[in-house]
């Protein structure tokens, strides 16, 4: 048609347009960066991706750099005075804004595997039961005919999680590292990295200037751009992952290693979230890689990856809309402490605890850490200390290159902080030092000891775990998955000293 397609900054791939000649409106709003204190590398990535897209579209694109979105719509540029169409945006606020505008038609969401009303029908049909990711995921596998063998899952099993929970390989079992930049300790090549160009140079100069003008401030360190900003880079990164790294995915998915933040993860979240890759194309490509060369991959690795992209990611997206805007304010555990400064500032040097310091340092340097550091180190620490879930949600959103409102709410409020009282998970993701010790190589390099609860050597995660269970003992008394923890609490002789110790830890970094 003649409609001009308005693209948000997370709708940058070809699947958001209807044809090769469709005209486009792109708006860069500076106010977005003034309102929130983003990680420097996140601001860079988003601006770089948008400007690359505008440059690529050339004459077809009306690109406006404005203070606020609204400025553009109050005085529409001549080229976009006619009817505009836009794919369903990814936040409540953006959706409401779109609906408030004249001559703008909102289309169904693109870049997801399931229509929202289809999910709503599925969820409504399960009233009275807990919604389960696993059920949703199996339905999606069937519908997309993905890793299927007729009606049955390929290989006869839907779920390989049990094989994907190994601790990190022990030092002596690790392959020789010839070039630490090239080879991950898991014996596969490291991730693919993009090269910067003159657009990146301009972005860097603009961000420096905005900062010098005092308009915006950032957290984290600047550094070379590490995530794709164009469709071409996105496809290269995907290909590299599938050809070289997917085979090591899964097995060590839950493990953490100092000195290798990337392990065998895909690093594709920021790329998919920018709309540069369609998740459905990503999982089909993974399946093809496997079917073409089955000797190269274990099914557990491929299924594990597909489960993340078309299972977890899709489920989180759907639940954002299904739970509605009020979900953001839930705080069932009444966690009221503000986030301390060292955490907000990503001040890894203020922290002695090896695991936390290492993870904060990686986040400061890259704007990214993988799922388990997010859940079992950062989120776990906040949960144990009773930090405000709304502040934590905002912090995750700002500090991660892949952070967007829709992906934050369910991951932080629901999965990580149990602030929804258990609508998403059956028990809180609280874990002690023993868990971190089993799943990482951090504890050997730490001044604390993972099993010590009280005293100089007390591990803040070990003590924090019991402090958390103690504070919420009444609430969890009826939860059979917490019964063992509560029984354990009754056996602790040093509980009083432990509570006193943790209450006085205060706002210092552990
Ligand atoms: P891989 O391990 O390679 O997984 C493949 C893909 O699966 C990811 O690229 C991602 O698109 C998808 N995926 C897997 N799990 C999830 C999930 N729970 N939610 C959404 N997508 C998922 N993911 C974000 O994209 N943005 C966020 O801001 C974000 N914040 C998180 C905060 C917390 C507290 C937790 C527990 C998880 C969060 N996640 C977030 C989910 C997950 O940790 C990241 O998607 C993943 O670590 C990104 O790295 P990767 O691309 O290498 O992932
Ligand atoms: Fe982290 Fe505790 Fe292990 Fe130290 S001992 S690395 S604080 S879990």
UniProtKB/TrEMBL annotation:
Transmembrane segments: none annotated. It comes from the Bacteria. Residues 155-192 are annotated as: Disordered. Residues 160-182 have a biased composition (Basic and acidic residues). This is Cryptochrome/photolyase family protein. It comes from Nakamurella leprariae.
